[in-house]
Sequence to fold (281 residues):
Amino acid sequence: MPGTGIKDLRRPKKCRSPVGMYEIETKPRTKLDDPERAQKLRKTAAEHPNLAPALLELADRLGSKSIRRRQTLASRQYMRKHRIRIGGELWRLYDLFKQTPRTFTLMPAGLTFAPYQLAGVDPRRLNNQVRADLNRAGAGSADGWMLLCLDGEHDLRSGLFHIHFHGLAQGGMLEVLDRLRKQRRYKPQPVSLGATGKTTPVYICRKPLTDLPKPLTYIVKSYWPSRARGLGDSGTRVKPRPQRIPEPAHSQWLLWIDQWRLKDIILLVKLRVVNGRLVPR
Fold:
């Protein structure tokens, strides 16, 4: 049956399209980004012969004029297409429900990896772990719905990748997220790199969303940023501006994300795709 997966969502109506707004890349920009990624992959291949065959193969696809060859999560053009569709559907659901949905971030413990370890990380397994955690918190009997997308960030100081999840939840699913805090993987932990304070493994935005569609398109991104987290001048934890992941870590991330499909990094809870629309179960 057509239109049964997250990749089959319809493009939103023009008047409600997030194209060119906030977190959505412009089409001209993404046309330049993929060849730029391909160029950096080739440069990294020359400096790291052990990774060269896989890097050059991906570089050829990202630099190709064939749309079919560039259908990969490593392509910003490909991800732009799906961010528009997913963001548009989440916007439609946000407007539709009287009990307004809220955005959230989950940072389960134990999802920190060195660049070379990414090759062994299966996002489907991580999604299944989160689904099991949600079920233990009562998601199976709760009303409402939820969409989560796997995301990550590179720490410039440690050189490690930190995987986490962004999402949108509605109804009783917000209470489910609150109950996650009772589970060990979601209890606050001391932050690393000498910064003060503790992590916030479950963060829920309690206020109505503003500047739409920015909070909704942020849930699914076409890149992972790098930051030099640590202590600021006042001795408190700071969150510096994001920048490009340095090589060869960025190329290793591209190789990793290229292996997977959109449905492998997105988790639907009491949502399904019907005729190109996200529909609560």
Remarks:
- The two ends are 18 Å apart (CA to CA).
